[in-house]
Amino acid sequence: MTLFNKHKLDVVIVQSLGTFSTYDELCEGLYRAFRDVAKGRIVEEEEGSVVYLTLRDKTGNRSLDRVLSMAKLKTIEYRIFRKMREKLRGYYNNEMKTGKAGDTSAIVKKFNKEMKDILEGNETPKPIEYYTGILEGAFRFIQNNPTQKDTLNNEYITFQQNLLKFLASEDKYEEYDKEMFNSRALDEEVKEIKKKDTAVSLI
Question: Is 52 helix (H, G, I), strand (E, B) or coil?
């Protein structure tokens, strides 16, 4: 680990959740893992974690262990920011096709409804109003800076950084986390270059 830190290299953390001998125990372990990952901040957890279901060899020979399946556990915040990007791009792409501006308040209302569906009783690092405020701020930002529509579609990371500066100009810099857009997991172009998933061995 010291070597990786010295050269500022990314590290994939491997964590075991234990060994489960019954189906019910496995389900309980998976549920706990899902709840823990779901409430993580995107800055710290990126997309979330990758769970590997592994069948342990009865003799204890790890070389004979078999991976049976794998699944991705996404953080709720990651899913919320992806949903936000989807709403913004969809709105302005439709505006470009029709030549007419839509109702941004309707988009925000739909975003709120879909966020509640995403939550499904899980916690978020911030209140729902926090994320709604960012979406509303993004609409104000583009209204004041129309050229950012292209940036939104082609350079999403740059768009996020510019949005944060805009929020700062509205004296909302302290209201919103300065690090909230440091995650590159939201950008499809670099998603495969840098992925910080946690590999978890369950069985």
Answer: strand
Q: What are φ and ψ of residue 9, in 5° steps?
A: -95, 145
Residue 20, φ and ψ in degrees, nearest 5: -120, 130
Is residue 13 packed enough to be buried (19+ CB in 10 Å), middle (13-18) or exposed (0-12)? exposed
Q: Residue holding tokens 């701020």?
A: 137
The Cα–Cα gap between 122 and 47 comes to 16
Residue 60 lies in a domain: yes
The confidence score (pLDDT) of residue 1 equals 67
Q: Angle at the Cα of 93 (from 90 to 94), degrees rounded to 5?
A: 85
pLDDT higher than threshold 50 for residue 193 = no
Tally of domains within the chain: 2
Query: Burial of 150 by CB count in 10 Å (0-12 exposed, 13-18 middle, 19+ buried)?
Result: exposed
User: What is the span of the domain harbouring residue 67?
Assistant: 14-76+196-201
Do 91 and 138 lie in one domain? The reply is yes
Quick one: tokens of 47? 């997309």
Question: Mean pLDDT across the stretch 129-156?
Answer: 90
Tracing tokens 């950084």 back to the chain, one arrives at 161
pTM of the entire predicted model: 0.70
